[in-house]
Amino acid sequence: MGVARFRLLKRLVFAAGVTVATLGAAHAENQRHYSQSLIGEPHYAPGFKHFDYVNPDAPKGGTLRQFVQGTFDSVNEFTTQGVPAAGLLLMYDRLFERSYDETSEQHGLIAEWVSYPDDQSSVTFHLRDGARFNDGTPITPDDVVFSMEAIKKADPRQAFYYKNVIKGEVTGEREVTFTFDTPGNRELPHIVGELTVLPKAFWTGKGANGEPRDLSKSSLEIPVGSGPYRIKNVDVGHSITYERVKDYWGKDLPFNVGQNNFDEIKLIFFRDRTPAFEAFKGGDIDVWREASANDWGTKYDFPAIKNGLVKKELFPVKRVAHNTPFVFNLRRAKFQDIRVRRAFNLAFNFEDLNKKLFFDSYIREKSFFDNSELAWSGLPQGRELDILNEIKDDTIPPEVFTTEYKNPVHTPQTHRALLAQADKLLTEAGWVNKGGTRVNAAGEPFTVEFLLASEVFKRIVLPFVEDLKLLGINAEARLVDPSQYKEREDHRDFDIIIDDLSQSNSLGNEQRDYWGSPAADQPTSRNTAGIKSPAIDKLIDKIVFAKDRAELLDATHALDRILLWSAYTIPQWHYPFERIAFWDKFGRPERLPYYDPDVVRVWWVDPAKQAALAAARAK
């Protein structure tokens, strides 16, 4: 669930997180639910005061300065044109807000409660009295209906995500009802609860230039939001500063208590991590999330670390492991043969990379849902096996039924043998090695470009490139700037990319965007591989219409196996911690959220630490 919630990590994720109800259970018609969860009962009972992972007495004030890689040319979050700035979701509230401690729990924010019939064929939201936009105007049901229609029109991916929502209408003074095209989709009330609510009056009005505003267009006009922050300053392409809305309408609601503690959040953009890290070392950036195990082990010996002014910590996380594999573009003829794709995986020497670059700290991924119950286990049996047999066709590799998936393991003793296996598969697929060059029947050489947006990835890819050259493949790593990368990815102009296919612990309608056949032809979908499999389409429906968690798990395990054995990607690795370095001016709760340290939402500036840090730096 949550279309783009994990994909948006590329531009930063700012997520925050009550009669209790569980979707899919038997409910009376029009029963009101102040919380909803797709998995079991919500953790937070009616009348809770605040989330467990916050300090309700956290002081407000100070500034948080963070690094963002890339650039931006728009402050409209909802367009596919241009490059929106990071952090824009801080400006907006949704109908329901999530808990960052639970996998699929929501609490009424703009909407006080939700109701739906037993068959989940529609959903009704009752808006909270006092909910308003930051210009002081109340949020109305008409704004909610407009938001659904406008966001679907502006963003094809959102239109695909909400395609089952066929009608929105005002059904009361503070009520809005959405009707679905089919009953039984237990996630739809939940995902409609994720809807970001926009002010209709602003977006149907005219801008300072006298032209009608258009949600689908890139824009630098500061929009009106309803959330805890608003834009204070924009330096296009370089920085954006958000300021806390001190009279924010929702600040005293239980799921906002102890959160949104910084008076200002400044995001500073760099095209490359190297100068950004120098800015962090110099004190111009406050917090640094380290993506490189090698850098974590070798580059944190600067004076501020030695003097204790900068702290360096590992924060455990319990979410589904981040999944950022190499992704083949199946639209290219050379990758349509599964033997070619499996040959590439055989040639990828993860173990050598892990030793030389990562201090043996990473775990190779053997599932699209590692570190969770969503990952396959053992051989398929019971209901899972029945599901696989129901959808069995020639697009399912036979190994799915007979063999547990394993990645190749490279050692000094096995490396040559694995390359020999890869050579054999390539030859069987019609790519023969002639004089050190791999060619097809037409004599065309096998060329491949790894399209990259980060120097960090280039160090990872170059050893892989060298092993592919041993197989006669003319491989290269191409580093481009973020805007060019986005353009080429959106238009599927690549051979192989490293993509973010990370998931939540509650799967549903968004799986159509990741793997569904219709999404393969949609330029901005998350189906970057271009997967078109009738069997997978059927599995997605089984996930979407699962009646309970057990049925969803069986279908997900089946999907996991098919994706792995089909070799649409080359699995990479994960690390069960977040590496964070920070200047020692912050306070934080004793226990952080399970799924992310959530610096932006739940940390705060400690006045005493900030004063001590300023004094130490002045010496």
Structure explained in plain terms:
This protein has 20 helices and 25 strands. 28% of the residues lie in helices and 18% in strands. The strands form eight sheets. The protein has a five-stranded mixed sheet with strand order 19-18-20-14-21, with helices on one face. It has a four-stranded mixed sheet with strand order 2-11-10-9. It starts with 34 loop residues before the first strand and ends with a helix. It folds into two domains: 7-51 and 75-237, 3-Layer(aba) Sandwich (D-Maltodextrin-Binding Protein, domain 2); 326-574, Dipeptide-binding Protein, domain 3 (Roll). The chain is an alpha+beta fold and 619 residues long. It is globular, with a radius of gyration of 25 Å.
Main attributes?
alpha+beta; D-Maltodextrin-Binding Protein, domain 2; 25 strands; 4-stranded mixed beta sheet; Dipeptide-binding Protein, domain 3; 619 residues
Task: Write down how many β-strands occur, each being a DSSP E stretch of 2 or more residues.
Answer: 25
Class per helix and strand makeup: alpha+beta
Within CATH, the superfamily of the largest domain carries the name Dipeptide-binding Protein, Domain 3
Rg result? 25 Å
Global outline: globular
Determine the N-to-C terminus distance.
Answer: 51 Å
Average predicted confidence as pLDDT: 91
Spans of 5+ residues with little confidence (pLDDT < 50)? 1-28
Report the β-strand fraction as a percent range. Answer: 15-25%
Strand order of the largest sheet: 19-18-20-14-21
**Which class of the largest domain in CATH terms?**
Alpha Beta
Biggest sheet details: 5 strands, mixed
